[in-house]
Amino acid sequence: MTDIDAAGLSGADTSLLIVDDDKAFLQRLARAMESRGFIVETADSVAEGMRKVEQLPPAFAVVDMRLEDGNGLDVIEAIRSRRPESRMVVLTGYGNIATAVTAVKLGAVDYLAKPADADEVFLALTRDPTEKAVPPDNPMSADRVRWEHIQRVYELCERNVSETARRLNMHRRTLQRILAKRAPR
Question: Domains along the chain?
Fold first, then answer.
């Protein structure tokens, strides 16, 4: 019995599209999901993901929020318009409430922070929609959340330290010290 059979999805369409620009992660997750019974297609860009959605909208999808050529939410929106019953999960290394709300409004069933493992992704895809998600075993620390937010703003400001410091209402030298340190656990 495969994991999908155990989750009660046998006989159903098990097509899964994974869209992520981290090629190593993409391949690992694809292999893990295939071993759980999904028929997996992969894409490493928004453009390729959109082409695959146009060809055959998947029953399931795992989409990274930030891709080199755009926003993964565009892929979520395309899937939702072509196949409204599709179950989709958004992955991101830059989690914040606004993007989580947007992802859910566009039809995602869950929003997972990277690095998410295959078990977390599988559970998010196959969980009963009426069930609440279980709290994470090891949530990010407050220091890590702060660091992720600073990194996100820094990237959005195109790695301009002065502009990032201004937007965060932080002294530039303080920001430089934070950016020079390793990410907290």
Answer: 3-126 (3.40.50.2300), 142-180 (1.10.10.60)
